[in-house]
Structures are given as structure tokens and as C-alpha cells.
């Protein structure tokens, strides 16, 4: 039998059995921080786990071989890892938001710094990239906003470069950042500083665009824009923090039914193309701001 492991440990009395993974017919106990998981050794194919030294101080309590996982492994993440290995969750039935949480957990726990399972890591990373459409312009879809900061921390920590720009833009345009104590625990100080700077640059660039009334090729159409710009564009933008979200605000301006307001089809087409150009300019400038 191997020597007791040297990973940081908690006292035996502080260890609790997992409510999710305590297989009565299991033959292998794994301890993540202060939570014990009873599983089947043959179901664990990860070399890192199989190679862990046994903790002989805990074996009398559990009646079988016991190993402590590296201290970086979070019990909640490890639970998701085991659900993945045991195929006990129908992931097609999860909400999109929950699916992203699980992918982030799998990336963390299967990474080189934790359980070193390259197959799980590569699969979870690929699924995350596909879910978040790295080539899209602008913020993540609305149902992902609540997860954005946690996803960003994973994207930055594991250098998922294809998602970096879109996640930074999403978080900077949907949260508040200042120089005071951070209210964003999942993000480092350097990241929140970068996000605050990006937010300032976006607002500075977009403010004159938003507050400049659109002009058209025809005077009559220009008059319509002059009359409707405040109630249809500036007002709603100020009410919804649109200054901080230039891509989304410009898309909203494009979607206004200007034809019904009296702008001719030719001028509507021309202005929508112009606003699309503004979106692309902003998106290109983000590269220089991050």
C-alpha cells in the first residue's frame, strides 16, 4: 500500500459523505476538501485519480481504500465530473445556463492543474466555444448574461482566446466597474481594471454617435429623424443603459420601423447600412481596448 498522501487535508471529523455520490456498492472513497465520494474504482479511468496515494489514516473509518484529491478540486465541480463519468445526467434536458455552468466546472476539474483528464477537458472546452459563438459580434445572448463573469474567469484562466473578446465585451457592458473594492469576486483586480477601461472607451466613443441626430439623403427624411430621434433613440437608450452597450443599441436603432415613421425606403436602407458600419467599427476598436 502507498504512503499516506501529502495533499492538504482536513481532519477526519470534518469530512462529510456526499449526498450525491455515495455508492453503497462502491469500493473507492475520494475526498475533495471536506466531502467524501464513494465510487467504483473501475469507473474511474483518469490516470491522475488512479495514481493518487492512499490515505491509510482514513481507511479504518470508511472500510476501504481512500485517497484525497488535490486541494484545488472543488467538491461541486467534482460532483459534476462524476455525473459526467457515470452518465447520470441527461445534459440535453438542462437549461442553456446550467449547461454552461457544467462545462466551466468540467474545464476546471479536468485541467492540468487539477485532475488532468485531457479528453474531458478538450470536449468541455470545445462545447463551450461552440455554445458561445466566438465569431458573433456583440454581447452574449440574454439568457447567458447571468453566467458571464464566471465564464469570463474560466476563459481568461484557461486562455480560451476565441471567446476572450466577446466575454470581455459582455461583462463590461452589463456590469458596473469602478476603482473601489471589487464586487466581482470571480474576477481579478487586473481584469476588473481592464473591464472598467473598456467600458469607458465604449461610452466615450459612442456618446457623440448616439446624441448626433441622423441625417438622410432627403430633407423630408432628415426632418423625420430630427423629430423622432429623442423619443425613439436617445430616450430609450438612456433608460436601458444603452450608452454602455453600443452594439446592441445600434441594432435596436436598425430595428425601428422607420418606414412607418415617414422615412422613405431608400433612406432607411442607406441608414441601416451606415449603422451596420458603425457596429463593425466599434467591434474592431474593441481589439485595441482590450
TrEMBL record:
What domain of life?
Answer: Eukaryota
What's the protein name?
A: Uncharacterized protein
Annotated source species: Irpex rosettiformis
Amino acid at each position: 500500500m502507498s504512503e499516506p498522501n501529502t495533499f492538504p487535508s482536513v481532519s477526519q471529523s470534518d469530512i462529510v459523505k456526499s449526498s450525491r455520490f455515495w455508492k453503497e456498492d462502491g469500493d473507492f472513497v475520494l475526498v475533495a476538501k471536506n466531502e467524501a465520494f464513494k465510487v467504483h474504482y473501475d469507473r474511474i479511468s483518469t490516470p491522475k485519480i488512479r495514481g493518487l496515494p492512499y490515505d491509510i489514516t482514513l481507511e479504518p473509518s470508511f472500510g476501504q481504500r481512500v485517497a484525497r484529491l488535490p486541494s484545488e478540486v472543488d467538491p461541486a465541480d467534482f460532483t459534476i465530473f462524476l455525473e459526467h463519468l457515470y452518465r447520470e445526467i441527461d445534459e440535453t434536458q438542462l437549461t442553456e445556463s446550467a449547461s454552461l455552468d457544467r462545462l466551466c466546472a468540467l474545464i476546471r476539474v479536468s485541467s492540468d492543474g487539477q485532475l488532468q483528464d485531457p479528453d474531458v477537458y478538450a470536449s468541455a472546452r470545445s462545447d463551450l466555444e461552440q455554445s458561445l459563438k466566438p465569431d458573433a459580434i456583440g454581447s452574449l445572448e440574454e439568457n447567458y448574461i447571468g453566467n458571464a463573469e464566471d465564464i469570463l474567469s474560466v476563459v481568461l484562466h484557461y486562455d480560451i482566446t476565441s471567446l476572450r473578446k466577446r466575454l470581455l465585451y459582455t461583462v463590461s457592458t452589463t456590469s458596473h466597474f469602478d476603482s473601489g473594492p471589487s464586487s466581482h469576486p470571480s474576477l481579478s483586480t487586473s481584469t476588473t481594471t481592464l473591464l472598467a477601461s473598456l467600458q469607458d472607451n465604449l461610452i466615450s466613443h459612442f456618446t457623440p454617435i448616439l446624441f448626433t441626430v441622423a441625417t438622410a439623403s432627403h430633407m423630408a427624411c432628415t426632418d423625420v429623424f430630427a423629430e423622432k430621434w429623442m423619443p425613439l433613440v436617445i430616450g430609450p437608450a438612456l433608460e436601458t443603459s444603452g450608452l454602455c452597450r453600443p452594439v446592441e443599441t445600434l441594432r435596436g436603432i436598425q430595428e425601428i420601423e422607420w418606414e412607418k415613421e415617414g422615412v422613405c425606403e431608400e433612406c432607411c436602407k442607406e441608414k441601416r447600412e451606415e449603422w451596420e458600419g458603425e457596429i463593425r467599427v466599434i467591434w474592431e476598436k474593441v481589439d485595441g481596448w482590450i
